[in-house]
Amino acid sequence: MNPEKTVQEAKADAGCGCVADGRQDGLPVVVIGAGPVGLAAAAQLAGRDQDFLVLEAGEKVGAAMAEWGHVRLFSPWRYDTDAAARRLLEPTGWRLPDAETLPTGAELVRDYLAPLAKVPALAGRIRTGTRVVAVARQGMDVTRTAGREERPLLVRAVARDGAVHDITARAVIDASGTWGRGNPLGHSGLPAPGEQDAAPYLTGPLPDVLGRDRDRFTGRHTLVVGMGHSAANTLLALAELARTEPGTSITWAVRGASVARLYGGGDADGLPARGALGTRLKQAVDNGEIDLVRGFTITGFRTPEGGPAAGPVQVTGQTPDGARTLPADAVVAATGFRPDLDMLREVRVDLDPATEAPAKLAPMIDPNFHSCGTVPPHGERDLAHPETGFYLVGMKSYGRAPTFLMATGYEQVRSVVAALAGDREAADAVQLDLPETGVCSTSLVTEDLLPGTTGQDGGCGTSCSTEPATAGEPASASCCGPSAPEPISIGLGAPAGLGFATGSVHGYSGEAERDDA
């Protein structure tokens, strides 16, 4: 052992996340969050006969996903479920929906998460309406070292009736995600002056424009801020609404000079659904359905007395041509998310200062250099922290990086649970079984089927990448193989940067202005 390292540092480097001396036998593993990755962790724990408890802040499992239930995923059903979860579901008569269909968030909750929560191995071990407010080491604050690993972890949770419960655990898997903690609209990572007062005008990042929230946008002017797929979803839905509802208008404001990264590679995008999204958005802008304002940095909000009933909010910003004001009846803040780290102040976590992701994972997912899908396989060793037995997984493990892959989260928890069960070999055998185009976040698409399957020109279009590519390198243009991409498996030890072609080059560093952007 390096004498300059503490015991905790050495164990973190080795990826040791288990409690080796057995002093905490009899305590459960606490899983925070009952979304897809949290329930996958529960299924993995059940499969290894490990005691566990799942704590979910929402009133039902998949509560966060249900809030954007109208949105379709980029990936079809065949890549949206966890293997251990399927093993629990299938004896109940559950069958995987059509493998090539793109589910909505609501369908994933209804047809997968809700049935999974009811299987005998999980039922009774999930507490909904229970919000975790802190994780700590029992009897110690974060500064105490002596005897630290001999104490169990402590999870403080608040029930729906306000009662506070302290739960001791031998390990904690935090899969609570980032939903509900959006980035502010102001520049420099800070809220703009007046942003709090403008709250009545602000919507969530994925409002249901054509359904539940339709009346809020009909006949009104909406300002959409942001340059991710959440913004694209909303912009396209608003454009569809404007075609049938007179007086409905849309402005799209971005800080950058180019939107090429969101337009993506069109037919050349490794994920056809995402490529179609970018193509449709570009067409809507070119046709004048959406007014695009580039280089707009928000510097303040002026809210009229009386709020929305008194008129639009005035959103002021700085542009290359000087100050500009955009009036809006509604402002969609599609500016991304950040993790809740306040609840972790009393545990020792090793986070990258830029992404707020686990330090060993951060270089693989840094959005400055990686586009969605260019992450190599990673597992328990990359997710371990100096606090033995504590892990961040799923969307929260990616911190502020907007590149999370659901299937990657499933592999994360498989590896972590194997380590907690003492199966080091399985924990280290990290592989991703994904379509060669990768799997990504969410996208609003009109079609129910993944582009590239039945009725889609045999899957080729004009060009689409199916070859694994080194991060930042252009993908192969050949794809005239099977209509549905064949899965590939990439294991631990793959070359650094190995990932999947996505049509987005170099992450943020590929944002150079293009003539067609």
UniProtKB/TrEMBL annotation:
Domain of life (superkingdom): Bacteria
Region feature Disordered, mapped onto this chain: 451-480
Keyword terms, alphabetized: Oxidoreductase
Domain (FAD/NAD(P)-binding) ranges: 29-352
Entry GO MF terms: flavin adenine dinucleotide binding; monooxygenase activity
Keyword Transcription attributed: no
Protein name, entry field: Flavoprotein
Organism expressing this protein natively: Actinomadura darangshiensis
